[in-house]
Amino acid sequence: MTTASLPPCTGRLAGRVALITGGARGQGAAHGDRLSAEGATVYLADVLDDEGEQTAAALRDRGSDVTYLHLDVTDPDGWAATESAIAERHGRLDVLVNNAGIVHVTPIAEETLEAWSRLLTVNLTGAFLGLQTMLPLLTESAAAAVINTSSIFGPSGAIGYAAYAASKAGLLGLTRTAALELAPAGIRVNALVPGGVATPLNANEPGTGVVPETPLGRRADPVELASAVAFLASDDARFMTGTELVVDGGFRAR
């Protein structure tokens, strides 16, 4: 599937400010593409500086307001610097997409504490730090939305993915709790739950991954997930919070 075959952008995020972690490539880059096409000012944050700058430059070339920022999501000081940069220019944040993540495939019996801790720190603690650090700016928004990228392996589990599945299940718990705590401030918090996705992150996944178990018989194109993120970020989803938007080609319906 190509971007041209998707529904047209409507400008429904015009005037809004969005921050996307893991924005240099893959899902994050697709989210930046879609949100900026919908009119948002977008900040792409990542540790892949060369790719991030190239992605941001390509979007600016088409006329979008996109800035790349270096950010290690496990670093509280990095988050504080990101918050300061956005606060200085805008004074608020309307959309936070906690998309940064890593994965490895290791049976529980062979998992190391170092690898386990590293994955949970990036995938789960990184999202917590982002939500906590950006909360003052989200509170200043009239229509704040947070989207946490989970996975079908969060609710379902998968052999060899103990650390990854635990991190993604944890994100679902964080999403629900944050939705309850932040609803009085008008901040919506939802989770995107993708199935198999064609991105560099899973390029080394064994075999064909979940494709054989996916009724639609393929991985998602990142632009298909970006459409879901644009929906969750917009007023079209204004009565949705604390829930999961599953985009998995039918995987969980089996």
Give the gist of this structure.
The protein has 254 residues and is of the alpha/beta class.
Question: Which short descriptors sum up this protein?
Answer:
7-stranded parallel beta sheet; 254 residues; alpha/beta; Rossmann fold; globular; 14% strand
Q: Which CATH class applies here?
A: Alpha Beta
Specify the helix fraction band. 40-55%
Give the structural class. Answer: alpha/beta
**Sequence of secondary-structure elements:** EHEHEHEHEHHEHE
Relative strand content: 5-15%
Kindly report the spatial arrangement of strands forming the biggest sheet.
3-2-1-4-5-6-7
Global mean pLDDT: 92
**What's the structural domain tally?**
1
Biggest pleated sheet:
7 strands, parallel
Q: How many β-strands, per DSSP? A: 7
Write down the overall geometry: globular
Please tally the helical runs, counting DSSP H or I stretches of 4 or more residues: 7
Low-confidence segments, given as residue ranges, are: none
Taking all Cα atoms into account, the compactness measure Rg is 17 Å
Distance between the termini: 23 Å
Q: Report the CATH superfamily.
A: NAD(P)-binding Rossmann-like Domain
Q: What do we call the CATH topology? A: Rossmann fold
CATH architecture assignment name: 3-Layer(aba) Sandwich
What does this 3D model show about the protein?
This protein has helices at residues 26-37, 49-61, 76-89, 113-139, 153-156, 162-182, 222-233; strands at 17-21, 41-46, 66-70, 95-98, 145-149, 188-194, 244-247. It is an alpha/beta fold and 254 residues long. The protein has one domain: Rossmann fold (3-Layer(aba) Sandwich), CATH 3.40.50. It has a seven-stranded parallel beta sheet with strand order 3-2-1-4-5-6-7, with helices on both faces. The longest helix has 27 residues, at 113-139. The radius of gyration is 17 Å and the shape is globular.
